[in-house]
Amino acid sequence: MTLSPTRRNVLFLLLALAAALVLVDFGALALGGVHLSLGEVWAGLLGKHPGSEASVIVRNIRLPRILLAMLVGAALAVSGTGLQALLRNPLADPYVLGVSSGAALGAIVALWIGGRMASATPLTAFVGAVLTMSWVYMLGRRAGRLSSYTLLLAGVVTASFLSAMILFVLTLLSTRDVRGTAFWLMGDLSVVTDVQIKFITPAIILAIIALYAFSKDLNVLLLGEGEAAHLGVNVVLVETMVYLLASLLTGLAVSVSGAIGYLGLLVPHLGRMLVGNDHRTLIPAAAFGGAIMLVLSDTLARTVVSPAELPVGAVTAVAGAPVFIYLLRRTTG
Amino acid sequence: MNELQSITIGSTTHGAGELIADSVAFRFAQFAISPISLKARAGELTAIIGPNGSGKSTLLEILSGHLKPRSGSVFLDGQNLHTLSPRERARKVGLARQETILLFSFEVQEFVRQGRHPHLGNSLFESPEDDRWVEWALEKTCLQEFAHRRVMEMSSGEFQRAVLARTLAQRPRLVLLDEPTANLDIGYQVEIFRLLRQLAKSENFVGIVVTHELNLAAEMADYVVLLRGGNCLTQGKAEEVFQADLLSRAFRTPVLVDKNPSSGRPRVTWIAP
Asked: In chain B, which residue's Cα lies nearest the Cα of A273?
């Protein structure tokens, strides 16, 4: 189905998706180790009965986590959408260019040196992400400009090298720390601080809006670099900016929550099924779709084996694979 | 018989409604295009023919203003195309080459809509005028019923019409097509060329086609340019260019040239080996 990209339709889409997101959020705030009623959730949000168990659960425990899930889900989904267009490859995901491996290595090195899961790991993870992003960018240039083909190759090679380095460092860690990093590597939304939220919220929102500004150019870029250039697109600028913004979104997401898989690959495709290929409707659909998906997955992760928690990356993978297979059968059937 | 023909262009007025290439030359590694000059008029169809590797596609890229020549300039309606920004150029020049069908399934009307991109300016969305031109382009190429079909589902001939529609939607003053009828059956070949010639007249743009279909070029083009090895062997009306000895040498195989009985235009036939 194709939703015609007009201003009115995009606004309508945004409102509908925001409403769906709010509903999902309420559900997520209510469910968990301790089930709350919607009334208690509402009271907790409004700040009534501060200090009550419900209020503490809602405001201090679940709300920050759900906020993080929304931001990270949106960031990964939009990053995946941008990279699928940039690389003209429906199998691209936010991790294909190695940024997540760089972030993971950064976090693990901090662990190795610091000796415990310090609060500095998001910082070192982000530094790792930025360094990898710059490295792959330099490697992916051909005759002074970005070529999607060499970029993909540079990213894949870098990712696999970094993964090998991660395994190497893992062998140097104590067993307890290894288990801790494994949990982080699979995606973990439980470690969230106010500082992190304060920093990544504006960063992710701004990056998504900036990427959206390139949505009409991304449509044309899908025709091919030569065709896009002949239609007046500044291919060098668009490719560079989309690369930077997508990598930034991935780096931000991974440095606070680890490498949550499948979202960045699947949500763009689900978005295409919902609204079509035009990025002017697809990017908003992906952003909200990613937020909704991750909040749902995280809620599942928290409740299914309560009081223990599954790593959210495991939930997205276990749920994601069948969804992907279903999509595959639908399009080829 | 002229081996090398060059037209000296007076440096005075470069008129409106014309494309003028003034001694454009190019070089890349072993490949070179010697200075070529030509003039193509609005409302007319010009064909560029020649063997593979003669520089036809490269010349087309230079004429589009996209590829910078080593020397010489290209003027459209008196304006030097290489001084324009890509977006300004895309508003005047439409270049369509061989395209692979996309991995992502766009609808035909979305595909044609891309032609309006150079006109969108800072706005993210199309204006009603843009929508009208998309409708117009679909109508001119008889694709209205296909508007909501997926581009991937079309046959090659239909897809080629869609590419033409997208180029038309740009409302260009210069339309350049690189082998628009490769891999198409005779019916589609004739249809595309006829459509091009008719549209060049009705919309008054300069139409330039690179093609291997020698007889279609002879039939439909108002002006023909024959290239070989980066040189212009000759250019002029079909009757002047389609000489058996010239073509035999250019294409490395003996041919004979007679007249198409239905139209009187030159017709090329290869001599049986």
From this structure: B105
Question: A136-140 contacts: CB < 8 A, separation 24 or more?
Answer: A136/A97, A136/A98, A136/A99, A137/A243, A137/A244
Rounded to whole angstroms, the Cα distance separating B94 from B99 reads 14
Is B170 within 8 Å of A231 when comparing Cβ atoms?
Answer: yes
The share of chain A scoring above pLDDT 70, in percent, equals: 96
What is the number of domains present in chain A?
1
What gap in Å lies between CA A44 and CA B165, rounded to an integer? 58
> Per-residue pLDDT tens for A264-288?
999 999 999 889 899 999 999 999 9
> Of the candidates B102, B104, B117, which has its C-beta nearest A231's C-beta?
B117
pTM of the model: 0.89
Q: Is B234 exposed, middle or buried (0-12, 13-18, 19+ CB in 10 A)?
A: buried
Residue A156 has φ and ψ, to the nearest 5°, of -65, -45
With tokens 């949500």, the residue in question is A267
What single letter denotes the amino acid at residue A226?
A: G
- 3-class secondary structure, B31: strand
Q: Kindly state the average pLDDT of the residues B246-268.
A: 93
pLDDT, average across residues A228-252: 93
Please name which of A178, A156, A155 lies closest in space to residue A166, comparing C-alpha atoms: A178
How many CB atoms neighbour CB A236 within 10 A? 13
At A322, list the tokens.
């069948």
Which ranges of chain B would DSSP assign to H, the alpha helix? 56-63, 86-92, 108-113, 128-140, 156-169, 186-203, 214-220, 238-241, 244-251
Contact B64 A90 (CB under 8 A): no
Q: Which class for B272: exposed (0-12), middle (13-18), buried (19 or more C-beta within 10 A)?
A: exposed
Query: What residues of A are in contact with residue B148 (Cβ under 8 Å)?
Result: 2
Say yes or no for a CB contact (<8 Å) between A277 and B105: yes
3-state secondary structure of B80: strand
Residue numbers of the domain that contains A64:
7-332
Interface predicted TM-score of the whole assembly (ipTM), two decimals: 0.85
B167 close to B5: Cβ distance less than 8 angstroms:
no
> In this structure, are residues B134 and B110 in contact, taking their beta carbons and an 8 Å threshold?
no
Could you tell me if residue A1 is inside a domain?
no
A210's tokens = 């900036």
Q: Which of B58, B89, B105, B117 to mutate to test the interface with A (most CBs of A within 10 A)?
A: B117
What is the identity of the amino acid at B65? G
CA distances from A57 to A25, A32, A244, B230 (A): 14, 10, 37, 77
CATH number at residue A304: 1.10.3470.10
Under 8 Å between Cβ of A321 and A262: yes
Structural domains present in chain B:
18-270 (3.40.50.300)
CB contact under 8 A, A215 and B114: no
Contacts of B230 (CB under 8 A, 6+ apart): B26, B31, B32, B33, B34, B54, B55
